[in-house]
Amino acid sequence: MYTFTQLVLRNIALAVCFNIAVMAIGSVFLSSNLAEKQTLFGQQLTTTVDNVDEQTLPQLSQLWLNSDTLSSLSITDSTSKAIVNQTSQLSALASLFAPTPTKISAPKSKLSINFQLNPTSSVNLMLVVFSVVLVLSLVLAIVSARVSISRYGNIVTQINQQIKIAFSDDSEITHQLAFDLPELEQGIKEIQSLLSGHLENTSTLENKAYVDPLTQIDNRTRFVQSFEAKDDNMEFGVLTITRCSELQTINQIHGYKEGDNYITQVANIIKNEISRIKGGAVFRLNSSDFACILPNVTIKAAETFADNLTNKFNDYQRASDLDSVGYTGLVAFTSDSPLGELLALADTGISVAQTKQKNAWYSQTDSSILESKSASYGNQSWRQEIDSVLENQRVTLLVQPIKPNSRNTKVYGEFLARFLNSSEEMLPTASFLAMAEKLDKIVEIDRMIIDKAFSLIKEKNLTDQQFGINISARSIHDEHFLIWLERRLLRDPAISSNLVFEITEYGLQQNIKTSKRFIDMVHRAGARITVERFGVGLTSFKFFRDLKPDFIKMDSTYTRDIDEDKNNQYFLRLMIDLAHRLSISVLAESVESQEEKFTLEKLFVDGCQGYYLGKPEKI
């Protein structure tokens, strides 16, 4: 569609072309008309000359020139004597249209006449006509442009109304306002269908990009957008982070389906409580963390919200027989508070809450803890709790069996450590180990667990059974720990020969040289090695051939729903074949159904572990 200026320019161009054509036709017509007039005037002139005497001719000649009838007149007698010889000056334009001078003879008077008509009046008339046509065409060009724009505007308005009506639900209004343009109606239907498809696709993509598929609440991306786009109505508020403390334990012991159910239940509890806060919103930041934004809420009101969460978590814990459900950190913010700082403060609040009673919350108001992580109150509280556990040996060991898939396969039961606080309540295992790693206490924790395992085996007289013990990556690369462990293993060879140390694939990759030294030492002492969470990294089998582990335990991402995943079946079959060629036994964890176990047996996995086969129990 043209703009008004474009339409005016187009119409003016057309008007100019039209005027040029009119002028060309008019010029031809004028020249023809003047030639015809000159012929007729010549006839009249011969008659006049024959009927008047020679003395009158100069007067008539002057009259014709003064009246612009003639531009030149010359009359001579038979002796070529000039009787009349008069000429008037023509304008340049008149000269262009002046007919060629005509020479005639008067039959009676025997006079010779040479004359030329004066075209000035005709040319002036033509100029007036051309000027009027030009002005009218220009006016018409502008008016028609305005009319066209108005018409286009009306059409666009009607199309806009038609489209709006077409997308409305009122079919009666559509019928009333629709105008008779079948092509447009068909086009609108096609656009409607296309837009509906695009809107559906956009909605689906937005849902995937901004909504957590499990809980159907907004994810971390939406959280960052929402927080950074705080409107003018939110001058202050409180940010809470709730960490689901038992997710890793539930996934390991009960399986991922129970873990998903646990997360969903926690999400529902938080959603129910946040609905009581005007403008409140909940987001899932990662697998175990939920964030809540409480706009224009004081810290005191937010603590009431946290109390309600704790009560609901306690109810859920009792109903589900969990060690805990979740811990919450609170931090107040203003409109100019940096999000990164708030998240760090809330995280330390969670660390403090985890050292209190189960499902506790903590309001973190001291921002100075950000200046030094080791000096933060949250870390210090954990340090005191970990030191207390180490000093009083408050650790208990559960055993989860690994079931062999054939009579000839020898496997073991895996020790799972649980830590207790001063009130003999279970601390969140994942958080405890994470803080021990962070505070450089993990090597001491590993020593305590190994000592506890030796004591328990002796106490229960279990020297004929085989057990697995998890060791952190930090410990296997610690020189003093290696010396201590070798002496400890050599002190009780009967027990050592039945121990299997589990190390993550990632932990071994951190330092190949020290990893090989650790494995060689363990083998010299008679114990064995399992590489767990295998398949997550990119370790080659040459690496395992050099290290010579006894078992590899496939990561749960390869064993979960293995009965339905053909790709994982192919990958596992390949890994198992290569491992067996190197005399390495292959174990599978997180086996949660009969179908998974049956599929793994067909793939010749040597042993399976999971809640379906046996849950962790006290010895």
Automatic annotation (TrEMBL):
Keyword Signal on this protein? no
Record-linked InterPro entries? Cyclic-di-GMP_PDE-like (IPR050706), EAL_dom (IPR001633), EAL_sf (IPR035919), GGDEF_dom (IPR000160), Nucleotide_cyclase (IPR029787), Rev_trsase/Diguanyl_cyclase (IPR043128)
Q: Which Gene3D superfamilies match?
A: 3.30.70.270, EAL domain (3.20.20.450)
| GO MF terms held by the record | cyclic-guanylate-specific phosphodiesterase activity
Looking at the record, the residues that make up the GGDEF domain are: 235-366
Q: What protein does this entry describe?
A: Diguanylate cyclase
- SUPFAM superfamilies per the record? EAL domain-like, Nucleotide cyclase
> CDD domains under this entry?
EAL
Q: Name the UniProt key words of this record, in alphabetical order.
A: Membrane, Transmembrane, Transmembrane helix
**Location of the EAL domain:** 379-619
Q: Which SMART domains match?
A: EAL, GGDEF
> Which parts of the chain span the membrane according to its record?
12-30, 125-145
